[in-house]
Amino acid sequence: MGVGSENTSSKFVFHVGEAALAKMTAANSEAMQLANVDQTTEPRGTWGRRLDFVLASIGYAVGLGNVWRFPYLCYRSGGGAFLIPYFIMLLFCGIPLLFMEFTIGQYTRLGPVHALAKICPLFKGVGLATVVISFVLCTYYNVLMTWALYYLVNSFNLSLPWQSCNNTWNAVGNCSTGFPGNATHLQSASQQFFDHKLLDMTKGIEHAGGIRWELFGLLVLAWAIVYFCIFKGVKSTGKVVYFTATFPYFILFALLINNIQLPGAIDGILFFLMPNWSKLLEVQVWVNAAAQIFNSIGISFGSMISMASYNKYNNNILRDTFIVALANSATSILASFVIFSAIGYMAHIHNLPVDDIATDGPGLVFVVYPEVLSTMPISQLWAPLFFIMLLCLGLDSQFAMVEVAVTFIMDGFGKKVLQVFKRKELIVLAVCSTGFLLGIPHISRGGIYVFQLMDHYTAVVSLMFLAFFEVFAVTLIFGVKRLSVMVENMLGKKPNLFFRVCWQFLSPMLVLGILISSIFQYIPARYGKSYTYPVWAEVVGWFISLFSIIWIPLGALHELWTTKGSLLQT
Question: How many other C-beta atoms lie within 10 A of the C-beta of residue 422?
Fold first, then answer.
């Protein structure tokens, strides 16, 4: 539907007072007609209270990336110096774009597909792309929850199984009960537990191996937990997040209090905080900071639009934006103190430099930290609590990603689908079952290679393209003026000059810079330091990436083909 060609049969009504409607200008009226609620559909649920929405948003934003990716980027990007570009990107990109997504969701009371189709029909494919990328992510993100469950179960043994080399899965001759640092011929006991016991991994994606049946059962359990937490919609999710969004903070503070008392902890903390100012001259450090903001807050995944769509029309999303964004960043800083104090302790007891301990990706959570836990006092207490914390961090993010798909189905095909499934609970079950089936390849013996390939081409390559087109469509095509009208109608006043300048200039420029840098500094997917993927796997990876972003040009072509009028009207 074009901007200048609304059909009178598709008028929508907002729950605002007559006085507010009377004050609307022609521009206001146009913006109001672009985003609306179809009153003929089933009544849309709302959060039970404002705190439900805030906690759910914080829970989604605060995830496993806060525990491993942010500390690792600080470690590689100049320590405390990394915080400077990080907070600059937060201020000029993260907060404005989160406010933008909250505005779209709350104003339209629609999920990302239908909301973006209303405000910018030419780029309606962006909304569908956000649903696709979120659903693809949730199919393998729950594998992380499966691993956490596996570690949790094993942490109740009399002795932690990853702290010794006297197990059937340990390789004879190259297992170290300590941390071997950069020694190429040795592996830590915790690394061998991850590689040989948890994954039972093959030598490459070419060798898929059989299914790990223990992980299969835990994957079923992980999806069952997700289902029973969201099957009643935002009403049930709103209750669950009171625990899942707050419990990790108790554990993080408890771990921090414990860690700072350990010998060597201060060395790790100083390594985290000590700035390497020369790193600020490297473009990649600024790109890493911006990418971390996007991945951590969850911009362009559709989840924030979806969750805000269940708000009451006049909810103060400006206040909520600052709460969610600042809570996310504060958690990253807190988690970094926890991680680096533990790494400093590891360096002390094994007489190694701090920079020989840190590692990237899941290894920081599933290899290094289990090794730390095994050497801590009262390790039998800390290990289960740590992995319960990981479950909570991951589940909140998983809730939101699954909810995007459910919201898309209900908004677009609610009546037709309900004729088949009868109840929304069965629709949620179908979505979770599909996600489970698509996750099975990740729990084969070669599943870690599938996991790494999917993560690289979805969370890195696809996301940057999607983020650019979303920002371009909303701030430049739909326009900052109309976006400001949305905010004024909901909150009673227009967004201040800071937000308007960010939306109009700074945020699009930053996102474009990230995209260009990602293209010119593209690195093929790899696992560890030695394994490179075969050409056919790289081709599959690009097809995975293309599958999520192809909807953007297809949506534009469909709109041009089906809509009368000129390109400007469309």
Answer: 10
DSSP assignment of 471-535:
HIIIIIIIIHHHHHHHHHHHHSS---HHHHHIIIIIHHHHHHHHHHHHHHT----EETTTEE--H
Q: What is the C-alpha separation between 448 and 66, in angstroms, rounded?
A: 21
Strand, coil or helix: 175 = strand
- Give the residue among 119, 127, 189, 123 at the shortest CA–CA distance from 154: 189
Neighbours of 230 (CB within 10 A): 24
CB-based contact 544:132 (threshold 8 Å) = no
Residue 523 pLDDT = 80
- Name the phi and psi angles at 176, rounded to 5: -120, 130
Nearest CA among 279, 255, 332 for reference residue 70: 332
The pLDDT of residue 23 is 39
CA angle 287, 496, 59 (to 5 degrees): 55
Instruction: Establish how many alpha carbons lie within 13 A of residue 388's alpha carbon, considering only the half-sphere containing its beta carbon.
Output: 16
CA atoms within 13 A on the CB side of 329: 21
Residues forming beta bridges with residue 526, ordered by sequence position: 532
Report CA 390 to chain centroid distance, whole Å.
Answer: 14
Structure tokens at 97: 């774009």
198-to-75, 148, 170, 370, 443 alpha-carbon distances in Å: 27, 10, 12, 13, 10
Q: Distance between CA 406 and CA 227 in Å, rounded?
A: 12
Distance in angstroms (rounded) separating the CA atoms of residues 435 and 401: 11
Q: At residue 61, what is the residue type?
A: A
Smallest Cα–Cα separation from 258: which of 375, 347, 365, 388? 375
How far apart (Å, rounded) are the C-alpha atoms in residues 473 and 34?
A: 14
Distance in angstroms between the alpha carbons of the first and the last residue of the chain: 7
**pLDDT tens-place string over residues 208-264:** 889 999 999 999 999 999 998 888 776 667 678 888 888 999 989 988 998 898 899
Three-state secondary structure of 181-231: CCCCCCEEHHHHHHHHHHCCCCCCCCCCCCECHHHHHHHHHHHHHHHHHHC
Is 322:57 a contact under the CB 8 Å cutoff?
A: no
Give the DSSP letter of residue 16: -
- Between CA 85 and CA 289 the distance in angstroms is 6
User: Domain 8-562: which CATH class?
Assistant: mainly alpha
Q: Which residues of the chain have pLDDT under 50?
A: 1-41
Per-residue pLDDT at 28: 42
8 Å CB contact between 406 and 427: yes
188: which strand partners? 176
Domain ranges of the chain: 8-562
Point out which residues pair with 444 in neighbouring strands: 211
Please say whether the beta carbons of 445 and 146 come within 8 A. no
What does the pLDDT read at residue 44?
66
CB atoms within 10 A of CB 500: 18
User: Strand, coil or helix: what is 12?
Assistant: coil
Tokens read off for 390: 């990981």
Q: What is the CA radius of gyration of the chain?
A: 24
**What phi and psi values does residue 527 have, to the nearest 5 degrees?**
-120, 125
